[in-house]
Amino acid sequence: MGSVPALNSTKPTQIPTQEEDSQNPSTALLSFDTDSSDPSNPPRKHTTTIIFISLLLITCIALSAASAFAFLFFSSASSSSSTPAQKSSHLETTSRPLTKLNRSVVLLISSDGFRFGYQFKTPTPNIHRLIANGTEAETGLIPVFPTLTFPNHYSIVTGLYPAYHGIINNHFIDPLTGEFFTMGSHEPKWWLGEPLWETVANHGLRAATYFWPGSEVHKGSWNCPEEFCMFYNGSVPFEERVDKILSYFDLPSAEIPLFMTLYFEDPDHQGHQVGPDDPEITEAVAGIDRMIGRLINGLEKRGVFEDVNIIMVGDHGMVGTCDKKLIFLDDLASWIDIPAEWVLSYTPVLSIRPPHGVAPWSVVGKMNEGLRSGKVNNGKHLKLYLKEELPSRLHYSASDRIPPIIGLLEEGFKVEQKRTKRQECGGAHGYDNAVFSMRTIFIGHGPEFARGRKVPSFENVQIYNLVTSILKIQGAPNNGSLEFPRSVLLPSPK
Ligand SMILES: [Zn+2]
Fold first, then answer.
1. Which residues surround the ion ligand 1 when the cut-off is CB under 5 Å?
2. Which terminus of the chain is less hemmed in, N or C, by CB atoms within 10 Å?
């Protein structure tokens, strides 16, 4: 509640600056007048005339610069405000009434690997339209650890940290059964917690998913109904996904799903191959913006754009990696042998489960000794922990699925078993969620979100309660705070 709408915050900072600029010369002009009233020094009169002329010139330049700035500021402000209601942003105190829909609808959109800041890489008029007329996490959305795709998408829809929702990595082994989880595993036993589509279905209401990790899994009253639950297929063109979502708004109003998900693989896909600073990313970001434009257009045509609560997020960020930033486990051989069979994942979350009879604490001790010795290439950029001793802010220990030994890598470093001739540069994510490059975006747009408002960064486990608050349904217990929605959403009218 402590934040100020963007229009409010820009006006006082920009306009006074212009006033200050134009005021300085005029105060100088006043002091000149006092100088000229001194007739006792004629040669000085000549100097003061020169000073007068130069100050007059400076004043003219400053005034024209100020008016140019003012023109630019106001013209850009008016071009980004596409609806007249935005002008009254600072007056908004309650959520806006629906004009066409009968009930609140939430459309949750994920653009995979949309690192915070990508929105400034290239003109993104549609994303910026949502930002200008909605509520934005000013310095981005904080992912959960590990900052990987499956753990984060499932945290967003359950409000739970991975240790509690069970998807502790993109791939892992259940130590009790020895079974493997992969991104294609749809058995309910893997997917703990209650995702939003299940919560909605449990209330007898309709949800629809156009891809989201976990959405194909049957849970509670959610049985992934045909037509309202798309089975993951990365080759479906983005346009087709958007158009399907739009088609739901052509249904009779009682049949429109109240909660929908829409997922795009970009720009994560490109980020892994070329890193975050390649022109390919810029192109992918522009492509996502076009999809947002297509969506806005379709909603406007149906007269429901201002009625739908759109929440646009990413799951994590991206950082550049390169062959110079590698650590090889085989380099630790003088301290301890780490066979590949012990290693469940290498990068960026090194996860090790030693066999029975090998004490995890002794493995951690020997590995850290080697890494700190100064004799292992890049060793100081990796630190091993018993999972119980990881920083508590990571919430990464309360699950049997999490292996007993976890290695935290510094941003941009990678672990491999042994040296190879492969030389590669690209991008990665999965690092500590305190690393800024892992941040992604949060934008909320619609009747429950104030226009032009900025809120501080928050963790994505808060989104579950945000959605249930908008839909006015009782959610399942989770790691988010019940007070949080009040700090982001507009209160209902009394
Ligand atoms: Zn991802």
1. 112-113, 149, 268, 315
2. C
